[in-house]
Design brief:
This protein is of the alpha/beta class and 212 residues long. It has a domain at 12-40 and 100-209: P-loop containing nucleotide triphosphate hydrolases (Rossmann fold, 3-Layer(aba) Sandwich), CATH 3.40.50.300. It contains 8 helices and 9 strands. A hairpin with a 2-residue loop joins strand 5 (75-81) and strand 6. The longest helix is centred in the C-terminal third of the chain and has 16 residues, at 177-192. The chain starts with 11 loop residues before the first strand and ends with a helix.
Length: 212
């Protein structure tokens, strides 16, 4: 039996959460199991961390270069987080969506608001909550990427970040990563099937009505 592949426009899947709630782990699981999903690589003024690679994890820019690109309108969204600038290169995203692939974003609520203002019809937003404040602090402490001072700062900021959950299309409580991953996959599959995203449907239905 011949498989029918209807052309569709890709979507922008945004995952946001307070630091340590699991969005990075969930992003990696989604990407590993779905060839139709690609990660948006942001530009940032944040220093490179051990193990990070230019162009894979981020595009690392100086503050002056970031400002120049922002003023030229090259970012789809941008925000300042913990004192550093982050932005999404617009052209890469548009090329990917037009090809029928989806783009995954790991950004905060500020970036999500920018995307919503510029491309609401392409956006699907998901907020990831931790099961408890104690669990959030435990995850931040055990991953051992940041100093105790930075962990304390992230915890202080978490309450404000979590207050933005009503602005998102979906909310997932990440108590069990396997279950949360399954919920994310279900959201992605359902959103891909939205009528307005299946741009090949009019021609397909016309062919069906003609006996094709």
């Amino acid at each position: 039996m011949t498989r029918i592949n209807l052309h569709r426009r890709g979507l922008m899947l945004v995952l946001s959460s307070p630091s340590g709630a699991g969005k990075t782990t969930l992003s990696r699981l989604l990407l590993a199991g779905d060839s139709g999903l690609v990660m948006s690589v942001s530009a940032t003024t944040r220093p490179m961390r051990p193990g990070e690679i230019e162009g894979r994890d981020y595009y690392f820019l100086s503050s002056s270069e970031f400002t120049a690109r922002r003023e030229r309108g090259e970012f789809l969204e941008y925000a300042k987080v913990f004192g550093f600038d982050y932005g999404t290169p617009a052209q890469m995203v548009e090329n990917t969506l037009s090809s029928g692939k989806d783009v995954l974003f790991d950004i905060d609520w500020q970036g999500t608001q920018h995307l919503k203002a510029r491309a609401r019809e392409d956006l699907v937003s998901v907020f990831i909550l931790p099961p408890s404040t104690a669990e959030l602090q435990q995850r931040l402490t055990t991953r051992a990427q940041d100093s105790a001072e930075i962990v304390a700062g992230r915890m202080a900021k978490a309450a404000d970040e979590m207050s933005h959950w009503p602005e998102y299309d979906y909310v997932i409580v990440n108590e069990d990563v396997t279950e949360a991953h399954g919920q994310l996959r279900a959201i992605l599959q359902a959103e891909r099937l939205r009528r307005e995203r299946q741009t090949g449907l009019p021609e397909f239905v016309q062919k069906l009505r003609g006996g094709g």
